[in-house]
Design brief:
Blueprint: E1 3-5, H1 16-20, E2 26-28, E3 33-35, E4 55-57, H2 67-77, H3 93-96, H4 104-107
Antiparallel strand pairs: 1-4, 2-3
Bound molecules: iron/sulfur cluster (2 copies).
One iron/sulfur cluster (SF4) binds near residues 32, 50, 52 and 54.
């Protein structure tokens, strides 16, 4: 049961969660960050450090946040703009660095 980052992260993206993840599986997009569902070990360490409560277990996301479960997978399994292949499971976000790209769903998210 991997954890998922929802809409509250969009345009906050302060990476507090990145610093506490023991397996370095939180990848930095342009407007939000994304947990790699294949790499997350479900420890929950990231949940309490998020200043906007954006992180939840995938089975427990609020009904209006359901789309972020699939979107969180899409970030790694679909080809992102400007790239030639999916990210997949690179085995660590720090080695990949900031990606400066989002899924089309997040890129189009209304700005507050
Ligand atoms: S639940 Fe644990 S392993 Fe998964 S993203 Fe959060 S800190 Fe990382
Ligand atoms: S701590 Fe919360 S707001 Fe900050 S990057 Fe992680 S999910 Fe986004």
């Amino acid at each position: 049961v991997p954890y998922v980052i929802g809409s509250a992260c969009i345009d906050v993206n302060d990476k507090a969660c990145v610093d506490v993840c023991p397996v370095d599986c939180i990848y930095e997009g342009e407007r939000k960050s994304y947990i790699n569902p294949r790499e997350c070990i479900d420890c929950g360490a990231c949940v309490d450090v998020c200043p906007v409560q954006a992180i939840a277990m995938d089975r427990r996301v609020a009904p209006d946040e359901e789309a972020f479960v699939a979107d969180g997978r899409d970030f790694f399994e679909k080809v992102l703009e400007g790239r030639s292949e999916p990210l997949g499971a690179p085995g660590g976000a720090s080695g990949v660095g900031a990606l400066h790209v989002d899924t089309p769903f997040v890129a189009a998210w209304r700005r507050e």
